[in-house]
Amino acid sequence: MMEKGPPNSSEGQQGWFSARNGSGSSVGLESVAQPLALSPWDVVLCVSGTIISCENAVVLLAILHTPALRAPAFLLLGSLATADLLAGLGLLLHGALEYLVPWEAASLLTVGLLVASFTASVSSLLSITIDRYLSLCNALTYHSESTVSRTHVMLLLTWGASACCGLLPAAGWNCLGQPSACSAVRPLTRGQLAALAACLLAALAAVLQLYGAATLAVTLGTPAACWLPFALHGLLGGRSSPALHTYATLLPAAYNSLLNPVIYAFRNREIRKVLWAACCGCSAPPCRARSPSDV
């Protein structure tokens, strides 16, 4: 069992992230013998998770409640909102279980949920980008049955791959039995975190290639600016990296789930009509189908 650092140490971050004592050794859940000191970083993550969950729940309810919002583009928006909603819940559950149920099994579940939800979020962004690109290239045939089928296939691939990635830590691909293999995000191994970071960078590169227009710089720049620090930390960081670096790079990545509804949902006229009608207590006017470029 590893030596445990002082409970009130500023580097005494424990649980999901690689905590370190004065000698730089990693502190695992198996070494916790007393209640953990409340970390301000975990408080920020819990508050952020709550806001992210509520914001994306509003978007998801607006889409589900309005029959007119059943076009393929809105299905992809619903997928993005669902993924970001789960990401917010994952952040909230991590903060709660870290102090209430400090078990290794809880760590695997929360990390698995976060890996799956963040993977689904980035994959949904890529699907939305592909859908927009095809709508511009095939404007005359976009509203055909093939578009609906293609959307269903993209949703199936998105959530199937995300579920597989989320189940890997619980299925045994973790570093709980070999602490030296831990990455900066415990209990993920260095190889697992590097693979996730590489896939993230590849997805961002694909989005850049498909957009390639200066007018969409904000749409592209936001996920890139949010995720690049964490992706680079996942590739270059390790078990000996300070926990502060992991928190500092994870927060911008989490805030991408906070900004996605603003960029992809609240800017849409139909969704704004539904939300305004819900706030005013009146019925929403009929919505006409719009192309993904309007979403």
| CATH level 1 name of the domain at 34-178 and 245-294 | Mainly Alpha
Query: What strand order characterises the main sheet?
Result: 1-2
Taken in chain order, the helices and strands follow as EEHHHHHHHH
Helix content: 55-70%
What is the annotated CATH architecture of the domain at 34-178 and 245-294? Up-down Bundle
From the structure above, extract its key features.
disordered N terminus; mainly alpha; Rhopdopsin 7-helix transmembrane proteins; two-stranded antiparallel sheet; 295 residues; 1% strand
Topology (elements, then pairings):
Elements: E1 19-20, E2 26-27, H1 40-65, H2 72-100, H3 104-137, H4 145-171, H5 190-211, H6 217-236, H7 243-265, H8 269-280
Antiparallel strand pairs: 1-2
